[in-house]
């Protein structure tokens, strides 16, 4: 194991582990936030793994998760809008902390990658990751009016 | 059979299966060993055919016939869904209502949609070089279209999604896979054999028929998922119980 | 070998899979299932199977939740209509 895989292990154990616990227990407003944060934490873990295994092609995994993870949260925000409107989630502190962590990981991996085409891909992943995480949180707390047939 | 007998039979069967599984596990090679006889042969074969991604070489070249079966499974299951979830006589269609979406969410969805489409095409096109391929890219493409439903509303999605077109494209892509297989026969080799020149290793055009089969699968999967989701969306949004109003 | 990493990923999969079975409400089950999909993708990556991980990510992160939640919406809707009629 090297430093990157150790960091990935810590992210998975502490971050994704906490998200898995959060999604399995508690009220709905906590579960949806935990689902959103699980993808925003697993994506940096995949970036760290790609760097730790020295396999640049594994970045595609993080790219797909950064792209589709927020889409999955949008599904829940959209189709559970009525239930969430009664009891909206409020976890902006946690969301910003996780977004900041994602940013730090992306910067670290970018520095390790150096300039080139790989850097552009990493920056796209970072933008999708942070933008998607924040937008999905916004969608959860009142992003949809929740029409009965829409 | 009484409840007790049934439970006894189930317990007997379960225990037998568990014993056999555990016994089989002890006969497996050790986890993560250095000896991979099958892996070594597969890697050698895929390098000989200039395909950088060994998995793609297995799926679309060395075991392309298996992929034909898998594709047929997806095709048949989507066909079954279309038949099962059709509008029956005692149901009617109600127009979907527009959804009010917060501005940042709508902007995000419209911004990410083209990025997701490009990513899907990238994953399909690089199937023979890096992890990915037709199935993964096709699912991403189909998911990308549905950002319109999530970020705008169902009427916006229906405008760019004529289901009939996707049904025809699905069937065309499935036959394209078969035609590529038959082309091998015409070229004088075997069904689904890699009959094209292998190209330069680690470039987009390498791998012979692998990129073409990948593209066929990508189109098939994308269209199949769109048709599948269209049936689910119709049921969830438009079709209601009760006769014609 | 990266044994601790494999153990962590396996434990996460076991925990979220058990939770997916234990949770009763279908909508909440879909939430757990989405997390399970992500964790499974991480496990496949750790076991050096990125192709399988990509398939799992593509299907599990958005497509499966959408299919389940649309079914939940369809099943719930007639009940809601009856309540409104009362």
Fold and architecture overview:
The complex is a heterotrimer of chains A (150), B (245) and C (86). Chain A is mostly helical and 150 residues long. In chain A, 80% of the residues lie in helices and 0% in strands. Chain A contains six helices and no strands. The longest helix of chain A has 25 residues, at 28-52. The N and C termini of chain A lie far apart (50 Å). Chain B has helices spanning 3-27, 37-48, 54-62, 64-84, 103-125, 134-145, 147-151, 154-159, 163-186, 210-238, and strands spanning 91-93, 239-241. The model of chain B has no long low-confidence stretch (mean pLDDT 91). Chain B is 68% helix and 2% strand. Chain B has a two-stranded antiparallel sheet with strand order 1-2. Chain C is mainly alpha-helical. Chain A binds chain C through residues 1, 5, 8-9, 12-13, 16-17, 19-21, 23-24, 28, 31-32, 34-35, 38-39, 42, 45-46, 49, 53, 55, 57-58, 60-61, 64-65, 68-69, 71-72, 75-76, 79-80, 83, 148, and chain C through 2, 4-5, 8-9, 12, 15-16, 19, 22-23, 27-28, 30-32, 34-35, 38-39, 41-42, 45-46, 48, 50, 53-54, 57-58, 61-62, 65-66, 69-70, 72-73, 77, 80.
Characteristic terms for this protein:
heterotrimer; A: 150 residues; mainly alpha; 6 helices; 0% strand; C: 86 residues; elongated
In short:
The complex is a heterotrimer of chains A (150), B (245) and C (86). Chain B has ten helices and two strands, in the order H-H-H-H-E-H-H-H-H-H-H-E.
What is this structure's SSE topology?
The complex is a heterotrimer of chains A (150), B (245) and C (86).
Chain A: H1 3-24, H2 28-52, H3 59-79, H4 81-86, H5 92-113, H6 117-140
Helix pairs in contact in A: 1-2, 2-3, 2-5, 2-6, 3-6, 5-6
Chain B: H1 3-27, H2 37-48, H3 54-62, H4 64-84, E1 91-93, H5 103-125, H6 134-145, H7 147-151, H8 154-159, H9 163-186, H10 210-238, E2 239-241
Antiparallel strand pairs in B: 1-2
Helix pairs in contact in B: 2-3, 3-4, 4-9, 4-10, 5-6, 6-10, 9-10
Chain C: H1 3-22, H2 26-46, H3 50-85
Helix pairs in contact in C: 1-2, 2-3
């Amino acid at each position: 194991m090297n430093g990157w895989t150790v960091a990935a292990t810590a992210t998975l154990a502490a971050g994704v582990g906490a998200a898995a616990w959060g999604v399995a227990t508690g009220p709905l407003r906590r579960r949806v936030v935990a689902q959103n944060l699980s993808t925003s934490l697993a994506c940096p873990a995949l970036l760290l793994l790609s760097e730790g295994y020295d396999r640049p092609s594994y970045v595609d995994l993080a790219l797909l998760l950064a792209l589709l993870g927020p889409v999955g949260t949008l599904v829940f925000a959209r189709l559970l809008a009525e239930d969430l409107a009664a009891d909206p989630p409020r976890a902006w502190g946690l969301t910003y902390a996780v977004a900041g962590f994602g940013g730090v990981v992306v910067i670290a991996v970018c520095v390790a990658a150096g300039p080139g085409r790989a850097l552009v891909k990493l920056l796209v992943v970072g933008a999708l990751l942070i933008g998607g995480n924040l937008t999905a949180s916004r969608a959860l707390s009142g992003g949809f009016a929740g029409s009965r047939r829409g | 059979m009484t409840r007790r007998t049934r439970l006894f039979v189930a317990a007997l069967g379960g225990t037998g299966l568990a014993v056999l599984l555990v016994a089989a596990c002890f006969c497996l090679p050790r986890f993560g060993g250095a000896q991979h006889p099958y892996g070594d042969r597969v890697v050698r074969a895929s390098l000989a055919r200039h395909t950088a991604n060994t998995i793609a070489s297995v799926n679309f070249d060395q075991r392309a016939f298996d992929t034909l079966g898998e594709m047929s499974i997806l095709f048949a299951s989507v066909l079954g869904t279309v038949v099962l979830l059709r509008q029956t006589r005692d149901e009617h269609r109600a127009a979907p209502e527009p959804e009010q979406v917060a501005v940042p969410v709508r902007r995000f969805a419209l911004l990410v949609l083209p990025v997701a489409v490009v990513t899907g095409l990238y994953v399909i096109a690089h199937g023979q070089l890096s992890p990915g391929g037709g199935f993964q890219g096709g699912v991403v493409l189909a998911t990308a279209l549905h950002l319109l439903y999530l970020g705008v509303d169902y009427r916006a999605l229906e405008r760019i999604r004529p289901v009939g077109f996707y049904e025809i494209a699905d069937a065309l892509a499935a036959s394209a896979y078969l035609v590529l297989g038959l082309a091998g026969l015409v070229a004088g080799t075997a069904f689904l054999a890699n009959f094209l020149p292998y190209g330069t290793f680690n470039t987009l055009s390498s791998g012979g028929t692998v990129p073409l089969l990948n593209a066929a699968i990508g189109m098939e999967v994308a269209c199949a998922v769109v048709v599948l989701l269209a049936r689910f969306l119709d049921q969830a949004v438009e079709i209601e119980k009760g006769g014609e109003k | 070998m990266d044994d601790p990493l494999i153990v962590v990923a396996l434990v996460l999969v076991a925990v979220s899979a058990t939770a997916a079975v234990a949770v009763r409400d279908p909508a909440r089950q879909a939430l757990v299932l989405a997390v399970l999909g992500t964790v499974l993708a991480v496990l496949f990556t750790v076991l050096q199977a990125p192709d399988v991980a990509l398939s799992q990510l593509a299907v599990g992160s958005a497509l499966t939740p959408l299919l389940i939640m649309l079914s939940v919406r369809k099943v719930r809707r007639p009940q809601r209509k009856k309540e409104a009629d009362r």
